[in-house]
Amino acid sequence: MKSxxxxxxxxxxxxxxxxxxxxxxxxxxxxxxSQKKKPRGRRRPDPLAGxxxxxxxxxxxxxxxxxxVAIFEEICRRDPAIAPGVRRTLERRIARWRALNGPHRDxxxxxxxxxxxxxxxxFTDMGALGITIAGERLSHRLYHFRLAFSGFEHAHVVLxxxxxxxxxxxxxxxxxxxxxxxEQHRSDSLSAAFCNLDRExxxxxxxxxxxxxxxxxxxxxxxxxxVAHENGSIESAHGHLKNVLRDELLLRGSCAFEDLAAYRRFxxxxxxxxxxxxxxxxxxxxxxxxxxxxxxxTAYEEARxxxxxxxxxxxxxxxxxxxxxxxxxRLNVHLYDxxxxxxxxSTQLLTLRRGRPPQGSGKHGHVVDYHHVIxxxxxxxxxxxxLVYRDQLFPRRAYARAFEALLAKESDKQACRTMxxxxxxxxxxxxxxxxxxxxxxxxxxxSLPDLASLRxxxxxxQAAIPHVAVELVPLSxxxxxxxxxxxxADLVIDGGVA
Length: 498
Known about the structure:
The protein is an alpha/beta fold. Helices cover 43% and strands 15% of the residues.
């Protein structure tokens, strides 16, 4: 007010430290706050006055996590006179009570991550994307590795669960793609592998994980179970990566892929573009990483199986077919997430696609290659009718369609003979895909496959045998050849000179 005596209200307000609007308001009403009328209070009676202190507050104190809507429904049940429009009033009052009297909440402590110190691993389910491989929906996860400082990422398609094999293979692929090793590795993925295992198996997995980290010189660590924000550097990255993949699939116009290799290339391309945007930070961190070891360590589990008279072996509730000449032999099997490598002694024989039993059915799964059993089916074609793994034997949908049509229109014996003949033709002539197209064309036209015409169509080309003319020389030419020798040439006979 002293400044106002010599200056205008705006300058006086600035010298006093408040706004010009406040200066004009004071000039319009120079009374002190104590001299003014008190603010008005509530005009309507409090609808919660009778239940707030006696019922609602005890509920909040007993069950701090209960929702406001649940409390409202309980109060309305106890007192039907409470109007439905009171719900929003109750929610605001509960929020204010919790801010003043509620329990303490967890605090997220933001961390600094220097370059080269921490890499994180986790698995995320990808079922929501609706990926299909060759027309069949792919149930899978992604193993996701990320560096906390630079944001370098690596993703690996996992067909099974969150197992040690999937972790070991994905982690090693990430480290070798990165070209270095961080000081620490944090993961909670092994907790799923420990479920429903006895103590000996748990200790074995823990030992294997520690040995994996020791091979690369990393210090292993795990966040507290159920506390996802302790892995926030990768948990939040899951959502970002899924959103990017979803956008890329929409731009691609399809979630269908020809095979698993094509889908994996798609994942690698998307992740590679994300890493390219962080190239500068990645190069900074790569300079601080430790060197890779000379070689990788094992990323598989070992098993020893016996090939039975059924032409295969059972492993993890899945039957795998192998060439029948291995019946009676014991094979050493290396189990990866997506394949099995079979050895006889130290000799690798073949690689099989890894199968998994149907969930919830209690039945065995089957991974069958018709090339392994076709020679035996030729001798026993009727065995196809009630074969346990008949549906898995057909290499393509066209063959299954053909057998269904044959059973519907011909006798069981003739249907089995024709079907075995089709499989044998595909095996002998290496025309599985072309033969499938021909079968589909016949079925779509409403006719059954004609085995004789198909054999004639896919028979090998008869190459013409070239005519080789051999001209015989007279025997006298050999005598002339023997008589000719260089002049003044000595002939060595039995160590002497002639």
